[in-house]
Specification:
alpha/beta, Rossmann fold, Heat Shock Protein 90, 12-stranded mixed sheet, 5-stranded mixed sheet, 18 helices, elongated
Length: about 700
Amino acid sequence: MKRRLTIGFFVNEIDGDFQTLFWTSIRKAAQKLDVNLIAFEGRILFNTDNISVEHNIVYKLADASRLDGLIIATGTLINKVSHDYFMEYIKAFEGIPKVSIYENIPGVPSILVDNKKGMKSLVDHLVNHHKYRKIGFLKGPLSNDESNERYNAYLEVLEENGIEVDEKIIFNGNFQSETGWETAEYLIKNNIKIDALVCANDEMAVGAIKYFRSMNLDYKENFVVCGFDNAHNSAIITPSLTTVMQPLDMISEKAIELLLEEINGTEVSEVIKLPTSTVIRESCGCEAVVNRSSTFSDYYIRAISNFKVHENLQTYSLDTLFDLLTTALKKLYIKSCFIIRYQEGPVTVKSDIPDFSELMYAYYNNERSDYEDIPFKTRMLVPDVFIPYDRQFTYLVKPLFFNNEHYGFVCFEVDNDDVINFELLRGQISNTLKGALMLLEKERMSEQLREQERMSTLGQLLISIANNIKSYIMAIAGSTVALNSLIDEYTKSITDKSVTIDDHHEIAEEMSSWIERIDGNLRYMTSVLDQINDQYSKFTTRNMDGFSVNDLIDSIKNHIRKFEILNMQKINIKVETDPQLRISGEIINLLQVIDNILVNAAYANIENNADTIDIRIEHMKGCILISLKDYGVGIPKAIKSSIFKKMVTTRGKNATGIGLMLSYSTIKGRFGGDLYFNSETGLGTTFYIKLFL
């Protein structure tokens, strides 16, 4: 079975006055000729007047890896750039057979329309049928060949009929409706009388009519406006617009046929020019019967329906968006939709397209697909599994961006005449992606900072432990040197008859003293390692649900009973928050910290003849604050700054000094919180554990 060819289509937009009809004709021609169509809707090239330039990035996605050929609606793209610049721009697509529409591109087969004949016929109708003499002209972009051809046709008719050209009623435009409005406004405000205004396209003509109507002027007595294109609104506006019709169906079919011949290696004509014809309606002063109601109401109903769906897509959760989007796609009768994210992004419109992307969401053949979260080559547009081989398809590709940050693109399957919903869906998906990715990035950065803090805290802890243990190892090393010296001395004394029994006992006692020192140092290091092992052996489990304040209070009360020294203390617990408030993390890790602080508090109290410890749990802004206050001797000023950094203790050989270091590491590393204290000599110490919610 012969493979169905896939062609690309560059167009500025599909939702517009003329563009809607043009897009529909291209899509239907592709269906008729049984070729797949992938449209890239990228707006006018390099239009830096507004954000539309950001849409240009979508053209970079076109590639021979997915496309057999490319049709470029050149006339809709180059209103802001020169021909030379455009020729340089399309070099990026040299490996793809191409056809240009509306502009003659050297080396590229081009489909043109006879703008001159159609415009001359229109202006001649005004001059010879209506006897108008003072006819103004609103031009299109100066870089657009079609616009210039229409203007020259206007000049030729004036010259052929002996009408002098009046530069005061010739205006520069840009094919946009606002220039039509502004020109009409200028004419009225400056009291410039003309018989008719001819516009280089319908969109500008409609803009002028809207201004005149806003001033409550009667078109039959006060203004005559004509256009060119026979766009959608030309038939439904009041008065209906006299214009020039382009043979859109013929243009579209001929462009595809020409491209197919080129793909197959057939020699093709470099330029094909198709005819235009005048459409006489009301705006020139003629009588015409136009059926507006059905077309207008259908257009209006679709817009209202779409707006409600758009409202229902507002969220900043990707999972929620995808669920809502699935519902919306069904309601809008959109058959397939794919959301693709660049793996290396975001990028800017001037950047190269990343080589690989990830399929974030797939809705295919009217149902959500599980085939998501997979990487693929970006210029393939979608994974091969979503390319139908048993039927013709039309895909529409649009960029996903926020301001100048581009995250990827969305691809819709189009199988009806709707053109309104795609841009609204694209915009909402872009906004949600921005919000969701910002949240993900914030979480990633926060986790990265927490990890850096954990590593920093762990690093400080390990350095301090290593330095402390090193000092004990050096002490052991010193003891072994002394022992070796005593062994040598004792060995020599064995044959020395002058050494008495008392001398032997003295040497043995000295050796025992050094062995006791070694043993004490070893016991200390064993205790340190046991505490480290005990502290971190429980870190391998994670309770994602966390625990409540009530759980913590019950656990503290149970743990107090396990320590004899704590049973000798009066421990008060005051709760100033909702007992059901939940705290993230492992409760056993927090209890180890609290146990260590409470035991230290009890020893400090005993030294100061006190027996009370106050525990307070309160809910402050965004956090839980646990304070543990004793009434002991306080922490000496000399060790305050190093209590969390070094293994320091006020309890002599009865403690290692590692407990508070491990506690600090736990609160910082496991809970992302903070541990600090306030202490006054003779008045006691309060430790504060801050846990962020």
